[in-house]
Write a structure and sequence with these properties.
The complex is a heterodimer.
Chain A: H1 6-20, E1 24-28, H2 44-48, E2 53-55, H3 60-72, E3 76-80, H4 91-98, H5 101-104, E4 114-119, H6 134-138, E5 144-146, H7 151-163, E6 168-173, E7 213-216, E8 221-225, H8 229-240, E9 244-248, E10 251-253, H9 257-267, E11 270-277, H10 282-294, E12 303-307, H11 317-320, H12 324-334
Parallel strand pairs in A: 1-2, 1-3, 3-4, 4-6, 5-6, 8-9, 8-11, 11-12
Antiparallel strand pairs in A: 5-10, 7-9
Helix pairs in contact in A: 1-7, 3-4, 8-12, 9-10
Chain B: H1 49-54, H2 76-101, H3 115-124, E1 130-132, H4 138-143, H5 148-156, H6 189-203, E2 209-214, H7 221-232, E3 237-243, E4 246-247, E5 250-251, H8 253-256, H9 265-268, E6 273-277, H10 281-296, E7 302-307, H11 337-347, H12 353-375, H13 401-423
Parallel strand pairs in B: 1-2, 2-3, 3-7, 6-7
Antiparallel strand pairs in B: 4-5
Helix pairs in contact in B: 2-3, 2-11, 2-12, 3-10, 5-12, 6-7
The chains are: A alpha/beta, B alpha/beta.
Chain lengths: 339, 434
């Protein structure tokens, strides 16, 4: 089976869908002639034409609004917002329009728009190229929110997102584009070729939106996480010598609570980990749901790990980033050991 | 010493207690503005794009004749249909305002004085063209044949409501009638219409999109996105700014800034701007036709400013006497669109007072009958009610597990409340809704 990194897998998903479905169009800044700042659409305009892979003005609100209109008129637009940090000018169109169009028109109008956007830190991007805004989309009824953690999932979930008749926010942890980053920036980079999930079929396949994956089975403790932190958590658990079960949430909304609840009931302990700031973050929703459903199975309080509640600081990236030390400390705390 | 800068705060020409003053309006005589070829390039237009955007296209003169190069030469029968649609729109508005005052509906928005803006434009477009209305465009709904009962059911949020009780009154839609769902957030439909038009062009279809916003909401970024995308991709669409002088209490000068017109925004984006007498049925029709022909032939979008006056309050929750002169509407120099078309038809010998009275009576009867029918689908106080379980549908295409659980929790909550009411006790609500 071919090896792909995450950018190649995402590229392949769009290539497959442009080929299969005439209604699929791509639009975004720098995505056409140039192929995207992360190369996710490289060569696609040449292959499918300027009418199907559109370069746009730098106007995120305009991109999403135009995609909504296109969706209403029978197309299946896949938009790229160059960095998740740039998505806010489009927030009204996403929240008030895209997410609620089906609802407010009682199903008479829909816009099957996919919004791809690179998120997360670890790339020396400072406060405007590093944010993880999944919680502000998870809070919006009518949106689906997906964040894959590896090339295989990225392709299967992106194809599912494009085929989904509901709008999907597809968050791509950009630190994972080239390899399964485990939170240790000083170690030599590991490529996806060394990872099982770097094996990606060439053709069409889809993975279900709305299902967690068990990234690692374990018995002592459950780590509920997603995106880059799946790999950081694996490293931290190994370093701490804890047999952790790691749930890769994959779909943040709608949330597969059943898989999470079953795991926590089995292990009796839980740490929730995400890269985003902790206060008001999605980890709060996860912890509250687990607490409601698993209270009598819990041996210790659920602990949340996240970025500090500050903007993402350029000079202090690795002090800010929830790396293996912070995660391992949380694991030990929940295991009842001194951190 | 140079004088320091001072912040300029714009003020309307008159506030309550002052004499209305419309001397700020630039008017042109009927027939005075030349009509360029619809296929003309922006920089080669005659008159110039700048003149077109600042003069005022008018067809009906003070003697009720249709004059000049923009005269669309419509048949009397078509003018009579236009008058019927405008009169129906006005009577519908008046009746719905009354029902709101009676507490039968929660909210209403009239379009009094702006009927031609919607009716003439919709009549100038083809049935397959897609319309993205604002909330003061009920004339579009009327022309596109939305049944009055359907509109009233929406206003009542009753069992016949096309929105299944999810939208504020007046936020209609009609998928068969090609009327997009109205949003309460202003101007969002403008760039969406451009996207729709882009898709039509991508698919190689002949259909165009048209959208309407108020002059106040042209201040939103969506307006600028719409113009830019329409210009960049030469999208086949018509972007209408209804300048009715007032955005609730904010006069048009706040959105216009120092610009002489809203149409003048167009040429800056490479799009022609037509400034049109919005109370002149023939001028609105002609301008829309011009823009539609331009779009359909691949020459892209047109920005049309429709100069009109919001005679009514912003909505049933508004009292304009607090911010503008009470008699301002009476001093409006462009008159009433219905009256002007009626007089024109009379001057042609194609209408008279008796026919007008008969039409008024017929349409009033139609509105009254529709209201009676709509009430059988339920009102706020009596008749059948929508199932509250409907609130969980259409959030997604299929019901996700958490919403299925919440729907069950609501059922239990409501059943508990019913049981409590029957027994006179308060029972514990066990639905957590997790």
């Amino acid at each position: 089976m071919p090896q792909m990194n995450m950018v190649q897998a995402i590229h392949s998903a769009m290539d497959v869908m442009l080929e299969r479905d005439r209604s699929v169009v791509l639009l975004g800044e720098d995505i056409g002639y140039f192929g995207g700042v992360f190369r996710a659409t490289e060569g696609l305009q040449r292959k499918y034409g300027e009418h199907r892979v559109l370069d746009t003005p730098i106007a995120e609100g305009g991109i999403i609004a135009a995609a909504i209109g296109m969706g209403v008129n029978g197309l299946r637009p896949v938009t790229e917002i160059q960095f998740a940090d740039y998505i806010y000018p489009a927030y009204d169109q996403i929240v008030s329009e895209l997410a609620r169009l089906r609802y407010r028109s009682a199903g008479d109008f829909t816009a099957p728009v996919t919004i791809r956007t690179p998120c997360g830190g670890g790339i020396r991007g400072g406060q405007t190229h590093s944010q993880s805004p999944e919680a502000i989309f998870a809070h919006v009824c009518g949106l689906k929110v997906v964040m894959p953690s590896n090339p295989y999932d990225a392709k299967g979930l992106l194809i599912a997102a494009i085929e989904d008749n509901d709008p999907v926010i597809f968050l791509e942890p950009k630190r994972l584009y080239n390899g399964p980053f485990d939170g240790q920036p000083d170690k030599p980079a590991v490529p996806w070729t060394a990872h099982a999930k770097g094996e990606v079929p060439e053709g069409y396949y889809r993975l279900p939106i709305g299902e967690c994956a068990i990234a690692r089975e374990g018995s002592e403790l459950t780590i509920v996480t997603y995106g880059t932190m799946v790999h950081v958590a694996e490293g931290a658990a190994q370093a701490a010598g804890i047999d952790a079960e790691i749930i890769d949430v994959r779909t943040i909304s709608p949330l597969d609570t059943a898989t999470i609840i079953a795991s926590v009931k089995k292990t009796g302990r839980c740490v929730v980990v995400h890269e985003a700031t902790r206060f008001g973050g999605f980890g709060g929703e996860l912890a509250a749901t687990i607490q409601e459903e698993c209270f009598w199975h819990l041996e210790a309080p659920i602990v949340r790990v996240g970025g500090w509640d500050t903007p993402y600081p350029h000079a202090f990236e690795w002090e800010y980033f929830p790396g293996q030390t912070r995660v391992a400390n949380a694991l030990k705390r929940v295991m009842g050991e001194a951190a | 010493m140079p004088r320091p800068s001072r912040l300029h705060i714009p003020h309307p020409s008159a506030r309550p207690g002052e004499a209305p003053d419309f001397s700020y309006l630039r008017l042109s005589a009927a027939g005075a503005v030349a009509r360029p070829e619809p296929s003309a390039r922006l920089e080669a237009m005659s008159p110039s794009a700048a003149d077109l955007a600042t003069q005022l296209v008018r067809v009906l003169d003070d003697d009720h004749r249709a004059v000049g190069p923009w005269n669309p030469h419509l048949e009397p029968a078509e003018l009579q249909v236009g008058l019927r649609h405008m009169l129906l729109t006005r009577l519908f508005d008046e009746r719905m305002q009354k029902t709101q005052r009676q507490g039968r509906i929660s909210f209403y928005v009239k379009c009094t004085g702006e009927e031609a803006v919607s009716v003439a434009a919709a009549m100038a477009l083809e049935p397959h063209d897609m319309l993205f209305p604002g909330y003061r465009n009920q004339g579009l709904q009327v022309v596109r044949g939305q049944p009055l009962v359907a509109l009233m059911n929406q206003l009542l949020s009753n069992t016949g409501d096309m929105c299944k009780g999810r939208q504020l009154p007046v936020m209609y839609h009609g998928s068969d009638a090609r009327l997009f769902s109205i949003s309460g957030n202003l101007a969002t439909q403008f760039p969406q219409a451009v996207g729709w038009a882009m898709a039509a062009a991508i698919k190689g279809e002949d259909h165009i999109a048209a959208s309407w916003i108020g002059e106040g909401s042209s201040a939103e970024a969506d307006f600028h996105h719409a113009l830019l995308f329409a210009s960049t991709y030469r999208a086949p669409c018509i972007l209408n700014v209804v300048n009715n002088q007032w955005a609730i209490s904010t006069f048009q000068g706040f959105a216009a800034g120092e610009s002489p017109s809203f149409a003048a925004r167009g040429p800056g984006y490479g799009i022609p701007g037509l400034r049109v007498d919005g109370n002149d049925f023939l001028a609105v029709h002609a301008a829309t036709r011009w823009a539609a022909e331009r779009a359909r032939k691949g020459h892209g979008a047109t920005l049309i400013e429709l100069v009109t006056y919001r005679v009514a309050a912003h909505s049933t929750s508004d009292d304009p006497a607090r911010y503008r002169p009470r008699d301002e509407a009476e001093q409006w120099p462009l008159g009433c669109p219905l009256e002007r078309l009626r007089q024109h038809l009379c001057a042609l010998g194609e209408w008279d007072d008796a026919r007008h009275a008969a039409l008024t009576a017929e349409l009033e009867q139609q509105v009254n009958a529709a209201w009676k029918t709509a009430c059988t689908f339920g009102t706020m106080t009596e008749g059948p009610k929508l199932d509250p379980g409907l609130m969980f549908e259409d959030v997604y295409e299929t019901l996700p597990p958490h919403l299925a659980r919440q729907r069950e929790a609501l059922r239990a909550e409501l059943a508990g409340a019913t049981a409590a009411a029957l027994s006179g006790n308060v029972t514990q609500n066990t639905g957590t809704g997790a």
